[in-house]
Design brief:
With about 425 residues, this protein is of the alpha/beta class. The chain contains 14 helices and 18 strands. Helix 6 (about 125-135) packs parallel to helix 7 (about 150-160) and helix 8 (about 175-185) packs across helix 10 (about 220-235). The chain starts with a helix and ends with a strand.
Length: about 425
Amino acid sequence: QQQQQQQQQAPNALLVGSGEYTTGYVSGGASKSDKNKGVVGLVFFDLRFRGLVGDRVCICGTNGTKFPAVRSHFDSAIGKEYNMSVKCETYPKDDVKKDTKAYLEAMDSMKKGDVVTVFTPDDTHFQVVMAAISRGLHVMCTKPMVKTLDEHRKIAEAAKKAGVLVQVEVHKRFDFIYEDARERIRSLGDFSYFVSHMSQPKFQLETFRAWAGKSSDISYYLNSHHIDFHVWALQGLARPVSVYGVASTGVAHSMDIPAEDTITLTVQWVNLKSGNIGNAVYTASWIAGKADVHSQQRFFYMGHGGEIKIDQAHRGYTTCTDQKGSFSSVNPLYMKYTKAHDGHFGGRHGYGYRSFEAFVHQVSSLNSGKGTLEQADDHLPTANNTLQVTAILEAGRRSIDSKKPITIKYDSAGDPEGFTS
């Protein structure tokens, strides 16, 4: 009874975007990646099971004709697997082949204080997020939240005026190892050097064919992870001041996909107290070979007082079966798809889950009047405190296009406001 009362007060959820990360369903079947059950849909079905979100979980895409298959996939991959309800409302209707504005109808069916997740192509984020804000809905948007600093600043201002939370889904902040590394980094004195690498196998280019190189690039898609971590680790201690980007080409073009294969951003930072200079190199690629992990992801950090190295892809846990090519390095610390002891979903401690859980808890606190947006800024990746991430990513794109280094300009409050070349 207590859980029923809690659920009645909990926010309902609208999940905008019906692709791999939300549903695990791609090109007529389960994804071939490590997300074949999806993430967002599964997490919100479980949050509803726990009474943390309301009874309504709605999913919105642009092609309604695929939703019967998506619901069937949910039933077999999640419902029967974990003995959990996968009941959901879908937009647009099943007989609608294309409606790029279906999210507006879906949002109009929600009430103020409900939550919206946005996992759509990068160039659609701004309009979807702003539509949610204008209706008094709290938003969790995938990274990058937007592609330009101008749009990011507009979202932050609109969210502040509307009194709603806009959070970026950057789950590395919720990995216990990355959390620990962040605190250690802040005790190592001035920043000197950071290098990160993140890559995914070539078949992801097929998964992302509809938008790769059109609505976004590999840097926005993957470099955003470690750039966000670096910005978070040095928050209030150092800031990025100039960016130079380079790109490698060939593989994607051979597949008739208008995208770069690999992008590297070299970023100069300044330590705020001392004025000492540090440098970072962020590299992202989607032409890696098929390996023991889906995503290669690692970084090295050097401060004046020490260094830290993390390989997030390899946690010392490998599996294999009699099947050829089955050897893999698994990471249930991200999303644990195996069952719990009671037969239900067992992945609530994964950082891919905890980022959404933290968002929902903060929304409930805001809706009840117990929490504030300022408190959210203190411990969550919000629109207010991630401006530097977007500044680096946009400067990188500008640099690649112009073949020139780009300088980031700051306003009197210390937030990035524009660029010079």
